[in-house]
Amino acid sequence: MDAAARLASWSAEGGEGEAVRIDRLHRRVLGRAATSAEIARGRRYLAEVARETAAASDPAGRAWRSYAQVLIASNEFLYLD
Amino acid sequence: MDLRDLIDRRTLLRRASAGFGALALQGLLGAEARARDVAERRLGPHFRPRAKRVIFLFMHGGPSQVDTFDYKPALERDDGKPLPFAKPRVVFAETGNLMRSPWKFRQHGESGAWVSELFPAVAGEVDRICFLKSLHGTNPAHGGALLSLHTGSDTFVRPSMGSWIHYGLGTENGDLPGFITICPTLGHGGVNNWSSAFLPGTHQGTPIGDASIPAKEAAIRHLANPTWSRRLQRRQLDLLRERNLEHAARRADDPLEARIRSFELAFRMQSEAPKVLDVERESAATKKLYGLDDPRTENFGRQCLMARRLAEAGVRFVQCTHSYKWDQHGALKRDHAKNAAEVDRPIAGLLRDLAGRGLLDETLVLWGGEFGRTPVAQGGDGRDHNPHGFTMWMAGGGVRGGMSYGETDEYGYYAAVDKVHVHDLHATILALLGLDHEKLTYRFAGRDFRLTDVAGRVIRDVMI
């Protein structure tokens, strides 16, 4: 979780929009650009999670953290071909 | 921010192996796939099963048959004399002359089974027990013998019998792993004793704690998620699953699928596993039955009680390890007495509890170590490893109670009559579960593999 939180805040440095942040995370974690489908899905996910946690503090930050966690839990990151 | 602080693969893998990833090492995909796992993955049974599941009480180190269940009057008579026949060509340590058991034997139950005073509580249950007194293996060292007993092979990494059974029968409870090992030893083959080897990763054993952890603290780690609500976890896992499925679709690799499933099982286990593993839910009387009221028996009692709860919940294969206690090259009198005192009440309690709940008939309880010990002395108060003749026992699960099968020679050194090789034990366990050990195969590296390799004889005489 610590790593996910650091990744999430790192992706915000520079402050570009969601699509750029998602792409940055893909490049950083998976060493490749995000596909357009991944960007669309990522944005949908972020919106849903933020809505889900609207009552908690910093829903957007939580959404990014949970998104970053998915990337570093993914098989694509964990296993090298 | 320094990018190197973020994370690297090595760190992540290390953390994950002790963290989220260790939640569960096998699993299934969602509710629909849970049904698939319960139904389709099962290859057996091949014929009528007598037992539905197994609880293996593993006495790590090698309990002495001639001091527990294999009574040898000749050994008492010839105490101090040399063994009148040859010792095995390969031995572990130098041994001397015959040494009588320091414990008295007495007959018990209607069956009149001989049990030493080391096991007074188990002695009360002998009419439920089938003693196998002619077990034999080949490997005189712990590591090889453990692997042989658990996997059928001491030369290569092979699937554990729990994995084979899970592969053959699937699971009865999609919310829990189907093969669980409680406080297993990390030595003497360690994880290879509960690994699925080349079988699909979903069949590997899930450890709860390990031998260095008191059973009271043994838990499936990180079962609670303090960060995300269940709804959010579900959403997160859906995204992860989508990504992983796309990733897996680009390559054929079984471990990837096993890992996808492990997340799903871990998710479902959050609600199921804490309930099942919480022995505090049991009545005071039940806890006492397992010896949780006595510091000597508390630890193994807790393992046995967890095993019953897991068995009741439909886990196919549960192992409790009493580790690594039974290796009395010296201090036999003191330590065999201590070891037996730690397990005697819990084991008897488990048998009685299973019987009382109507579970014993369908649950095969297996007791034993990786080998036995020599009837000749090592030093003045010890016995060496002996894979050539030793005792294991089974109860419940379609086994005839109150009987004894096979014999060692008059001193208890070599299996002599109706010999039961470890392969034969495996074939018999599978048969009790309705699995034909010759049909339960898996193709790997160009040939079909079996738990029993090219050996194994089913001991029909012990079956009801």
Notes on the protein architecture:
The complex is a heterodimer of chains A (81) and B (464). By secondary structure, chain A is mostly helical. Helix content of chain A is 74%, strand content 0%. Chain B has 464 residues and is of the alpha/beta class. Chain B has helices at residues 9-17, 30-39, 73-77, 120-123, 142-151, 161-169, 230-249, 254-277, 284-289, 298-312, 332-356, 422-432, and strands spanning 53-59, 105-108, 113-116, 129-136, 179-182, 206-208, 317-322, 363-368, 372-377, 383-386, 390-395, 403-405, 407-408, 415-417, 420-421, 442-444, 447-449. In chain B, strands 1, 4, 5, 6, 7, 8, 11, 12 and 15 form a nine-stranded mixed β-sheet that branches. Chain A binds chain B through residues 1, 3, 6-7, 9-10, 13, 28, 41, 45, 48-49, 52-53, 66-67, 69-70, 72-81, and chain B through 1, 3, 5-7, 9, 11-13, 15-16, 20, 227-229, 231-232, 235-236, 239-240, 242-244, 247-248, 251, 253, 255-256, 259-260, 263.
